[in-house]
Design goal:
The complex is a heterodimer of chains A (115) and B (112). By secondary structure, chain A is mainly β. Chain A is 0% helix and 52% strand. The radius of gyration of chain A is 13 Å and the shape is globular. Chain A starts with a strand and ends with a strand. In chain A, 37% of the residues are buried. The model of chain A has no long low-confidence stretch (mean pLDDT 92). In chain B, strand 7 and strand 8 form a beta hairpin. Chain B starts with a strand and ends with a strand. Chain B is built from no helices and eleven strands. In chain B, strands 2, 4, 5, 9, 10 and 11 form a six-stranded mixed beta sheet that branches. Chain B has a five-stranded antiparallel beta sheet with strand order 1-3-8-7-6, with no helix packed on it. Chain B has 112 residues and is mainly beta. The chains are: A mainly beta (115), B mainly beta (112). At the A-B interface, strand 4, strand 5 and strand 10 of A face strand 4, strand 5, strand 9 and strand 10 of B.
Chain lengths: 115, 112
């Protein structure tokens, strides 16, 4: 069974630009979450989607957005990039049938550098 | 405010020794406590997880001990090996939520 797939793996963007990251969850998983990992703030939850609906949201500004498609694939977008957005962005998938304590599997992440 | 506090920040253990990492939480709504292992350049990989209805769970060389009254849980790695050298994160999630709150991580180094 294929794991969580994220693309692109590495990218460099200029401050003020926008970026879109893509995630394909494990086959059969309907919940997709996004996390930001930085040395200073650690791993922080961005948002979760289930059946194309945002089910939960972390404490990030509105520049961070996401969506989920009918095949459970998800994208996240960051607009007006700032230097502080440089991070590893991790996608995670879980079966999601119950809205509590599901086993969550992570992808290898997309490394974003903002210059 | 850090919802899950993890210690130590770094840990050096001799091969064959026991590695112990501790975590504490305040939110009594948390009911799922996983541990993740992360190697450089990789995403976190689920190692082992526990729910508060049991006090201990063992999988191979990895054991979670859970103390509900103290709101603490810990990871024990028995017979630590150099291949265990990685960063370990504890996490927690609660009833009615599918997002994880992570500890700050422990960088484990196992020396031969």
């Amino acid at each position: 069974k294929a794991g969580v797939t994220q693309t692109p793996r590495y990218l460099i963007k200029t401050r003020g630009q926008q970026v879109t990251l893509s995630c394909s969850p494990i086959s059969g998983h309907r919940s997709v979450s996004w996390y930001q990992q930085t040395p200073g703030q650690g791993l922080q939850f961005l948002f979760e989607y289930f059946s194309e609906t945002q089910r939960n949201k972390g404490n990030f500004p509105g520049r961070f957005s996401g969506r989920q498609f009918s095949n459970s694939r998800s994208e996240m977008n960051v607009s007006t990039l700032e230097l502080g957005d440089s991070a590893l962005y991790l996608c995670a998938s879980s079966p999601g049938q119950t809205y509590s304590g599901n086993t969550i599997y992570f992808g290898e992440g997309s490394w974003l550098t903002v210059v | 405010q850090q919802q899950v506090k993890q210690s130590p920040q770094s840990l050096i253990v001799q091969k064959g020794g026991i590695s112990i990492i501790n975590c504490a939480y305040e939110n009594t709504a948390f009911d799922y406590f996983p541990w993740y292992q992360q190697f450089p350049g990789k995403g976190p990989a689920l190692l082992i997880a526990i729910r508060p209805d049991v006090s201990e769970k063992k999988e191979g060389r990895f054991t979670i001990s859970f103390n509900k009254s103290a709101k603490q849980f810990s990871l024990h790695i028995m017979d630590s090996q150099p291949g265990d050298s990685a960063t370990y994160f504890c996490a927690a999630s609660g009833t009615g939520a599918n997002n994880l709150f992570f500890g700050t991580g422990t960088r484990l180094t196992v020396i031969p």
